[in-house]
User: Fold Sulfate transport system permease protein CysW from Alsobacter metallidurans.
Amino acid sequence: MSEAALTPSPARPARRAGGARVRGESRLVQAILIAIALVFLLLVLGLPLASVFVEAFRKGWDVYLEGLSDPDALAAVRLTLLVAAIAVPVNVVFGLAAAWCIAKYEFRGKTLLTSLIDLPFSVSPVISGLVYVLLFGAQGWFGPWLKANGVEIIFALPGIVLATIFVTFPFVAREVLPLMQSHGTADEEAALTLGASGWRTFWTITLPNVKWGVLYGVLLCNARAMGEFGAVSVVSGRIRGLTTTMPLHVEILYNEYNTVAAFAVASLLALLALVTLVLKTLLEWRYADHLSANGKH
Assistant:
């Protein structure tokens, strides 16, 4: 055989179906696409965010602090933190339990359960709040019985918590489920074979494998819980100083033309969004490294 026959042929450009060559975009096209994306983000996110802080500090630092120190504003902050402190742990427990069942077991109704987890993404929060009113309101299915027993859900803290839990419960489950499915059941089966109990297997194997997904889901769940408006607006009654969360308090102040105080409270929500964005970025970076490390072994 000749030397020419033994010489490998030079690599040819990859071809798409139909014979067209795959070519990279030119630097000009890349620059134009990046510029369009940056301009869009500036107009849609940057300017509104900047306007919140500009309006909040328009009359000075003292007026800004006065708006935040108002008793009704402080009550709204406390209620928002309380609702998030209740809703987020409940959704963590539910999310882990639902993801565990779907990823580790086969049972009838598995597809239905997966679809129900996504239900809040397809139902308007206002509709979900209205459903709770129809169920637990004074004229609802269970309202008269609850009132007779001294239980108040609608226009009170329990209704706000229920509405918040509903709109936020997919976040933890949806972040944890793909991780549990990717890890499979081999590690848990090995631990059970060696005599570990179910709880010990969960705490030492399952939870460490999905901890970054849990943290990521908690972050998103908390941000949504603190910023929820539609469902909470329906079930809260907007009783100023009692059942108004921070988003509802901002709307009340703005409708009263107290714009500086409204933007002062809104700036707290904006800061929450910025902190969430930073933590989300850090978790995504750390989360990607974790997945990559798992994929190499």
Observations:
- The two ends are 43 Å apart (CA to CA).
- The first helix runs from residue 3 to 6.
